[in-house]
Amino acid sequence: MIRDTTIGAKLWATAVWAVVGFFILNLFAMIGTVITSSFGTRWLGTWLPAGWTTRWYSSAWSEFQLGDVLIVSFQVVGLVVLISGVLGVTAAYALARREFPGKRLVMLLFLLPLLIPPITFGIPLATVLYQTGLAGTFWGVVAANLVPTVPFVILVMIPFIEQIDPKIEAAARVFGANTFKLFIHVLLPLLLPGILASLLLVLVRTIAMFELTFLVAGPTSQTLVVALYYAVFAAGVRAVQSIDAMAVIYMATTLIWLLVALRFVNPAQIVTRAKQQPAH
Amino acid sequence: MHSTFHASQHGPTLRQRLAANGFDAVTMLVLPAALFLVLLFIYPFAFGLVLSFEPKNTDASWLANYSRFFADPFLYETIAKTLWLSVPTTLINLFLAVPIAFRVRLMRNQRILTAILVLPITLGTVLVAEGLLNYLGPQGWLNRTLMTIGLIDQPVRLLHNYWGVFISLLLTGFPFTFLLTLSYVTGIDPALEQAAATLGAGAWQRFRHVYLPLLMPGFAITFCLSFVQAFSVFPSAVLLGAPAGPTRVISIAAYQAAFEEYDYSMASAIAMIMGFVQLAIVVAVLASRGLFYRGPASGAKG
C-alpha cells in the first residue's frame, strides 16, 4: 500500500473525512429528529420535546389503518419477491448458459427498466393499467413493481450462474437428471447464496418503491411508503408526531431487512469485484 | 417447435436447426421474463408514444400536446427547473464521491461506512423528505445548531423552496453516486498505481495520469445514472419544495396532467419529453466518453 506522508496529503485526508463526517452527522440527525419527535409530547421551540410518550404509535396505528396497510405491503412485497425470483432466475440461467442471435437485444430489454427512472415509464404503464382495469387493484401494484425487479434479479444472477462450472450440470445429465431434477438438486443449492442476496435486495427495494406503487395503487392497495407520502402531503390534518411515528414504523420495516441483506451482499461491489490490496 | 417433416428425408429437423443456432429448451427459459417485460414495459412505452400523438381534444392536430407543452411557459419551464436542480446536485455528488472513494478504497473495513451510506437509498425519498421537514425547519436541529454557534442570527429558510429539494437530492443522491464510484475505483488493479509510484509519481500525478484516464468511462456512466435519478425527482419536490413555483419539476407536470386533469394523452407526451431529455443528456455524456481511453484496467490475470 502506498502511504503519502506529506503535510498536504494529511490535510487532504482530513478534509475528505470531515466531509464524510458532516454527511453522516446530518443523516443521523435527520433520522434522530423523526425518532425523537415520534416519542415526544409537545415539541415547540426547544432542543428536545417537553416530555416523552408512546401514545403516538397507537394513534398512528388507528388513524392511518396501519394494520391493513402493513398486511397489503407484506403481501405485495412477498409476491414481488417470489415472482421476480422465479422469472428472474430462469431467464438469468438461459442468458448465462446460451449464446443465441438477438441476445444483445434481450439484454437491452432487461437493462432499460433499471436505467430508466420509474416515474418516466410509470406514467405510460399506469395509463395502460388504468385502461385494462388493473390499476387500483392489488395485482396492478404487484405487476408494476415487478417491472424493475425482474431485470434486477436477472442482472445480479447472470454472473453468479456463469461462475458455476457447466461440467457439474453435464455430470448430472449423464446420470439421468431431467431439467427439473437438475435444477432442484444441483443448481438450486449452488445458487442459493446468490438468489438469497438478490431477493433480499428486491425486498428492500420494493418496500421503498414509491413512484410505481403511487401511480397505480388504489385506496385498498396502498403500501406503507405511499400511505406515508399521503400523510406527509396532507400534513396539518394529523399531528406531526403521529406521522413521525408512522415514519419510524416504516424505517423499522425497511432497516430490519437491510441489516439481513447486508450480511449477504457488499453494496460497494455492484459493478466490479474489488481487487484486494496485496498483504504487506 | 415440433417439425412435421421426417428427419431422415429432409435433413435436420427444425428443432435441430434451432438448437444449432442456440435456440433450445434452455434458451426458451428466457421467454417468460422477456414476454412479461415486453407486455409491461415495451408495450406501455409504445402505447404512450402513440397516445401522446392522439390529443384528448379529437379536433386538435396530432402534435397538439407537444405544441401546447412548448407554448405554455408553465409547462416548458419545467425542463429548465428540473435541469437546474438535477445537474448541479449530480455534479456536486460526483465531485465529492471521487476523493472520498479514493480514501475509502484504502480502508480495511469498508462495510460499516457503506452500510451507513446505503441508509438513505434504502429509506427512500419519501422518508428523507419527511425527516428533512423536521430537521431543516425553522425550529429544527440544523437551524438551532447554526444559531447556537453564531453562524446565523435567525433561522435560514430551507423548506418549501429550491434548497429543500437540493439538500434532499444531495442526501439521497450522494450514496448512490458514491457506491457506484467506489465500485469502479476498487475495480482497478492497484498494481498500476504501485508501478506509477515506483517510478516516482506523486499522489496527484498518479490520479491525473493513471486513474483518471482509466476511470473516465466509469465516471461518465456514474454521472448518467445519477443524473437520470435526480432528473426524475418527484416526492421531495412536492413535499420539500415549492411544487407550484421554483421546484415545479417535469414529473409534477406529468403527474398533474394524468391524475388531476385526467388527460392521459398529455401526460404521456410529457413523459416522452422527460424520457427524451434524459436520453439526450445520457447520449451526449456517453458520446464524449469515446474521447477517453478504453481498454483493460483490471489487470491481465483475473
Q: Spell out the helices and strands of chain B N to C.
A: HHHHHHHHHHHHHH
**Structural class by helix and strand composition of chain A:** mainly alpha
What is the quaternary state of this protein?
A: heterodimer
The CATH topology annotation of the largest domain in chain B reads as: MetI-like fold
| Domains of chain B (count) | 2
Helix content of chain B: over 70%
Q: Note the beta-strand portion of chain B.
A: under 5%
CATH architecture of the largest domain in chain A: Orthogonal Bundle
Under CATH, the homologous superfamily of the largest domain in chain B reads MetI-like
Taking the sheet with the most strands of chain A, its summary is: none
Largest sheet features of chain B: none
Regions of chain A with pLDDT < 50 over 5+ consecutive residues? 270-280
Total strands of chain B: the figure is: 0
What is the 3D form of chain A?
Answer: globular
Question: What is the CATH superfamily of the largest domain in chain A?
Answer: MetI-like
Name the average pLDDT of chain A.
87
Ranges of chain B where pLDDT stays below 50 over 5 or more residues in a row are: none
Give the overall form of chain B: flat
CATH class of the largest domain in chain B: Mainly Alpha
Domain ABC transmembrane type-1 (chain A): 70-261
Organism (chain A): Microvirga brassicacearum
Protein name (chain A): ABC transporter permease subunit
Subcellular location (chain A): Cell inner membrane; Cell membrane
3D structure, described in words:
- The complex is a heterodimer of chains A (280) and B (302).
- By secondary structure, chain A is mainly alpha-helical.
- Chain A has two domains: 46 residues, no CATH class; 218 residues, MetI-like fold (Orthogonal Bundle), CATH 1.10.3720.
- Chain A has eleven helices and no strands.
- In chain A, helix 4 crosses helix 6.
- Chain B has two domains: 40 residues; 223 residues, MetI-like fold, CATH 1.10.3720.
- In chain B, helix 4 crosses helix 14, helix 7 packs antiparallel against helix 9 and helix 10 runs antiparallel to helix 11.
- The chains are: A mainly alpha (280), B mainly alpha (302).
- The interface between A and B is large, with 98 and 102 residues.
- Chain A: Keywords: Cell inner membrane, Cell membrane, Membrane, Transmembrane, Transmembrane helix, Transport.
- Chain A: It is a multi-pass membrane protein.
